[in-house]
């Protein structure tokens, strides 16, 4: 099971990085905070101080077509906001 899916790159995520040193990641919805902390520490070689998680429900959309009502939905997402220890930095844009 892959824990970290991808980092979140948005204006709000970059603002939190500059302001508080927090980084946002999309993670596996079945992962818990301890697994997320260990995965970030192993992947980036940093010391994690705090992990906050939030679960986004799937969004349902529907539209009427010639064939009738078409219903679709997005996947459930889990986002983790990682606060690093003092002096630690992650370079998300680095090429591995």
Question: How would you describe this structure to a colleague?
Answer:
This protein has 96 residues and is an alpha+beta fold. 23% of the residues lie in helices and 41% in strands. The protein is built from two helices and six strands; from the N terminus they run βαβαββββ. It has helices at residues 11-20, 33-44, and strands spanning 4-7, 22-27, 48-56, 60-65, 68-73, 77-84. The protein has a four-stranded antiparallel beta sheet with strand order 1-2-6-3. Strands 4-5 form a two-stranded antiparallel ribbon. A hairpin with a 2-residue loop joins strand 4 (60-65) and strand 5. The radius of gyration is 17 Å and the shape is elongated. The chain starts with a strand and ends in a 12-residue tail after the last strand. The model has no long low-confidence stretch (mean pLDDT 92).
Descriptive terms for the model:
single chain; 96 residues; alpha+beta; four-stranded antiparallel sheet; two-stranded antiparallel ribbon; 2 helices
């Amino acid at each position: 099971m892959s824990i970290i899916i991808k980092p979140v790159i948005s204006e709000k995520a970059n603002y939190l990085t500059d302001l508080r040193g927090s980084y946002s990641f999309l993670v596996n919805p079945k992962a818990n905070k301890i697994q997320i902390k260990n995965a970030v520490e192993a992947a980036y070689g940093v010391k994690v101080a705090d992990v906050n998680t939030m679960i986004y429900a799937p969004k349902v959309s529907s539209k009427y077509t010639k064939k009738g009502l078409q219903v679709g939905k997005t996947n459930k997402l889990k986002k983790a906001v990682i606060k690093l220890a003092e002096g630690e930095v992650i370079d998300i844009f680095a090429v591995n």
